[in-house]
Amino acid sequence: MSKVIVSSLYDSDVFRMACRQFDKAADAINLPESIRDRTKYPRRTFAVALPIRRDDGSITVFEGYRVQHNLTTGPAKGGIRFHQHVTLGEVAALAMWMSWKTSLVGLPYGGAKGGVIVDPNQLSLGELERLSRRYMQELIPFIGPHVDVPAPDVGTNEKVMAWMMDTYSNHVGHIVPGIVTGKPISIGGSQGRREATGAGIAYLITKYLADLKIPVRKATVAIQGFGNVGSEAAVALDHYGLKIIAISDHTAAFYNPKGINIKKALAFVRSQRVLKDFDGGEEITNAELLELKCTVLAPCALERVITPENAPKLKCRIIAEGANGPTTFQADRIIEEREDIELIPDVLCNSGGVIVSYFEWCQNLQNFYWTREEVLTKLFAILDRAKDSVEFQKRKFKFSRRLAALTLGIQRVADAKIARGLFP
Ligand code: NAD
Question: CA 416: distance to chain centroid?
Fold first, then answer.
């Protein structure tokens, strides 16, 4: 019998939320007590101090983390977040969700996440480079292409991945493209990786619309967050013929019942960096966006935006969780009870990102590169399989879709731990 550890290290709203999800899933599949805690809690955590020389000659020390939640099923895998509100608890929760996600979709990976407490918009390009390199430098003893493979997340991108890959490679003495994924194509990135998360979300949305017999041309979409995930989901949904009626970022939200011109919004963000002052729609608040009448609501920004306060007021038919953890545990229960909303849970919905990261890593290890068509065909095949397995589990046990997805992911990690013994 394992003893329950009450984790003070990670304690936070978001970590408690991830733990409650785990406990519910573990109860639902009668996970033995002896395996629960070691499946649930992170394996190991690194906290690093990152002194950076600023452009004015002064020095600032930033704080960063890397949480390796699970290394039992393969190298740990998960993004690195640069955001001013990063906490260790948030990174741990995100690492936990990565474990269930990689297992659910059948990738030979564990789960991890990293974060640095910094607002990257307040850094010059040179400062951002120094911070990215320093973070990687501090992690070198703890990661590797067969140990832990980072990727981009909120506030980081291809450029950051390139600096990190270069720092690691210089340390080793030769190029090691498989140390991170989400790199530029010129240094071993994969065709289709940049758009993978958004393309996967859009693909799954069309599949669920088909299940509901809603024609794509009649479907409207509201998207919160217009970064990598939100904007690429918008592009793909637009391509499928859905009408995007609202978009937002942390600076502004816009509503246009005739449909937002996505190309124009992308061009605007490319030149202005943010959506503020975009003239393609009526300005609304982010809170109003979430409550718009639409077919699909896609939260693609941060955690815990669908709450017990707004869950009863949502007017969508589908929630597509592009972000990780956008729905609180209590809001989840409200949505389940309403029975009029189909929720595509984060671990399934946004898994396209890590699936194509896996393809990128495979290509790096083999030094054999694939076409965009090959990447997308393989991506959609894995998403189809994962969706089918979630729907089967949901029907068989009369679970919610989130519970179905989490139980599948958690069971595989627990099975691997039982098979391997106590150490992994
Ligand atoms: P990003 O930094 O590229 O974009 C984040 C977007 O959210 C930006 O437009 C930002 O302005 C917006 N935002 C931030 N705070 C907001 C707020 N309070 N209200 C409205 N908008 C806000 O990050 P990303 O890579 O697109 O990640 C977004 C989400 O998707 C995160 O939850 C991340 O963990 C998840 N995710 C990312 C990937 C990936 O491949 N990048 C894969 C799976 C899941």
Answer: 23
Output the pLDDT for position 1: 43
Instruction: Please name the residue ranges forming H helices in 241-285.
Output: 262-272
Question: What's the token pair of residue 133?
Answer: 């390199």
197 in helix, strand or coil? Answer: helix
116 forms bridges with which residues in the sheet? 64, 82
Q: Let me know if the fold of 41-184 is the same as that of 196-349.
A: yes
As a whole number of angstroms, the distance between CA 220 and CA 242 comes to 6
Query: How remote is the CA of residue 183 from the centroid of ligand 1, in Å?
Result: 18
Going from the Cα of 40 to the center of ligand 1, the distance in angstroms, rounded, reads 25
Which of 158, 193, 229 has most ligand 1 atoms within 8 Å of its beta carbon, as the pocket-test mutant?
A: 229
Phi, psi (rounded to 5 degrees) for 18: -65, -40
Closest C-alpha residue for ligand 1 atom 3: 227
Instruction: Tell me, using a 6 A CB cutoff, whether residue 156 lines ligand 1.
Output: no
CA–centroid distance, 226 to ligand 1, in Å, is: 7
The residue among 66, 70, 65 whose CA lies nearest residue 109 is 70
120 vs 207: CA distance, rounded Å:
36
* Neighbour count for residue 280 (Cβ, 10 Å): 16
Type of residue found at 170: N
List the structure tokens of 376: 């997308």
133-170 tens-digit pLDDT = 999 999 999 999 999 999 999 999 999 999 999 999 99
Give, in order, the Cα–Cα distances in Å from 221 to each of 246, 248, 258, 298: 7, 12, 11, 7
Question: Ligand 1 in contact with 163 (CB < 6 A)?
Answer: no
Nearest CA to ligand 1 atom 15: 250
Which residue in 24, 77, 113, 387 is the catalytic one? 113
Yes or no: domain 196-349 corresponds to CATH 3.40.50.720: yes
At 378, list the tokens: 């393989």
Residues of the chain with pLDDT under 50: 1-3
Given 3.40.50.10860, 3.40.50.920, 3.40.50.720, 3.40.50.2300, which CATH number is that of 41-184?
3.40.50.10860
398 is an active site residue: no
pLDDT per residue over 402-421, tens digit each? 999 999 999 999 999 999 99
Domain ranges of the chain: 41-184, 196-349
Chain-centre distance of CA 319, in angstroms? 15
Asked whether the whole model's pTM tops 0.85, one would answer: yes
Number of H helices and E strands in the chain, helices first, is 14, 12
